[in-house]
Amino acid sequence: MKYKLVSVPLTSEHWNTQYTGHGAVEFASKTQKYLLISPKYPQNEQETYAALVTLKATEQRPVKDYVVEVEVTSQKQLRPENPNEWEVFWFFGNYRMGDNGKKEANYFLSKPRTGIELGRVYQEVGQDFLSTYSRPQLHLGERSRWTFYKRGQRFRVYKDRQLIMDYTGRTPRQELYDHPGTFGLYSEDALVLIHSFAYTPL
Questions:
Q1: How far apart are the first and last CA of the chain?
Q2: Each residue of 70-79: pLDDT tens digit?
Q3: How many other C-beta atoms can be found within 10 angstroms of the C-beta atom of residue 124?
Q4: What CA–CA distance (Å, rounded) separates 13 from 43?
Q5: 82-91: pLDDT as tens digits
């Protein structure tokens, strides 16, 4: 793949905080080189908190196909006992609010015990699983470089330059969202550090 990525500063001038999950979103500054996302600590099994920031440039000029490269650390899961697998960093692509005022987006996440997952999210809590692999597993506290390449119904994922997923949606039930949208950096019950972000439309 040959493409030129544009680096995006991790500051409030470039990102919108959609919600903080009653916790903190701290943008990069002269003294802090990363974007920190940390929702409120859940106190019991019924509580869950999430935080989301979205890229202003792609809110103004949505993109359908793209290459994104993000360096991220899922530093720790915040649930004190028996954290869930999905309580880590999530990448959202093609994120938009639909005609019903509810979200629609493709997503990717890496989990500590059960590997990687690609899917779609919609409405309040709707979710479709498109593809999963048992490897590689997430190591909490490990800084990784993820590259997401979407063109049409094909979605490729690279971890530290190594291809780990190559997915193509071939039927309506397997299709990615293929509309223009923005990018989202999301945490569910996890302390997440974003070290860099770059992208290019295709």
A1: 12
A2: 999 999 999 9
A3: 7
A4: 33
A5: 999 999 999 9
